[in-house]
Automatic annotation (TrEMBL):
<dbReference type="GO" id="GO:0006357">
    <property type="term" value="P:regulation of transcription by RNA polymerase II"/>
</dbReference>
<feature type="compositionally biased region" description="Polar residues">
    <location>
        <begin position="69"/>
        <end position="88"/>
    </location>
</feature>
<dbReference type="InterPro" id="IPR000580">
    <property type="entry name" value="TSC22/Bun"/>
</dbReference>
<feature type="compositionally biased region" description="Pro residues">
    <location>
        <begin position="97"/>
        <end position="106"/>
    </location>
</feature>
<feature type="region of interest" description="Disordered">
    <location>
        <begin position="69"/>
        <end position="112"/>
    </location>
</feature>
<feature type="coiled-coil region">
    <location>
        <begin position="34"/>
        <end position="68"/>
    </location>
</feature>
<dbReference type="InterPro" id="IPR047862">
    <property type="entry name" value="TSC22/BUN_CS"/>
</dbReference>
<dbReference type="InterPro" id="IPR053049">
    <property type="entry name" value="TSC22_domain_protein_2"/>
</dbReference>
<protein>
    <submittedName>
        <fullName>TSC22 domain family member 2</fullName>
    </submittedName>
</protein>
<dbReference type="Pfam" id="PF01166">
    <property type="entry name" value="TSC22"/>
</dbReference>
<comment type="similarity">
    <text>Belongs to the TSC-22/Dip/Bun family.</text>
</comment>
<keyword id="KW-0175">Coiled coil</keyword>
Amino acid sequence: CLNLRCTYHASGGGGVAIDNKIEQAMDLVKSHLMYAVREEVEVLKEQIKELVERNSLLERENALLKSLSNNDQLSQLPAQQANPGSTSQQQAVIAQPPQPTQPPQQPNVSSA
């Protein structure tokens, strides 16, 4: 055998206790990983919910804008209609105003 369990089993009675400790440690790692995965799933579910709501809002806004525009205005739109994925990405970029950038602050250095 090439793994630790076979080595410990061959060494005698202490191998069973070590096997139990290894098993407990593996169970502990497994439970911690499962907890972390569940937490991440909850965060992702919340993000999905927010994105679905945002998508719905944008679709309603789009429908309203289409209803308020005339056919001439719609015909002047760029050919983005052929690729709906790029349209929704551009809408998301347009919908979020850029954040103002602040210049990096210089640390206050006093000469002593």
